């Protein structure tokens, strides 16, 4: 494991998800799940999110679209929250999900809108 890449990953993960979320994830990590959390931190957050080729806002748009299309509601909820932190508006989240509905199918789009409504609150 690259210590620099891991530390970069922790930093970015905290900036995007917040200390409370990251602390909860890390506190819930046991000996069995430690390797996958290390992998996520080092490679997803440190290597990929740390690359200069796309800004965080763009990475959030991509993740929202991919996770909605793959029907991954728990991860989608987290990345919608992160997308808001990274500068996305509610309207932009809505546009992402409309595009998913057309390209990945209405069931995926409808399920993603349900997740987004829960994340965005009652006034969504």
Percentage of residues in helical conformation: over 70%
Give Rg in angstroms.
Answer: 15 Å
**How many individual domains?**
2
CATH architectural designation of the largest domain: Up-down Bundle
Decide which structural class fits the backbone: mainly alpha
Average pLDDT metric: 95
Overall 3D shape: globular
Biggest sheet statistics:
none
Question: CATH superfamily of the largest domain, please?
Answer: AhpD-like
Number of strands: 0
User: What is the fold-level CATH name, i.e. the topology of the largest domain?
Assistant: AhpD-like
List keywords for this structure.
single chain; 124 residues; mainly alpha; AhpD-like
3D structure, described in words:
With 124 residues, this protein is mostly helical. It has helices at residues 3-17, 19-27, 34-48, 56-69, 73-85, 90-104, 106-120. The chain has 7 helices and no strands. It starts with a helix and ends with a helix. Residues 36-118 form the Carboxymuconolactone decarboxylase-like domain. It comes from Arthrobacter gyeryongensis.
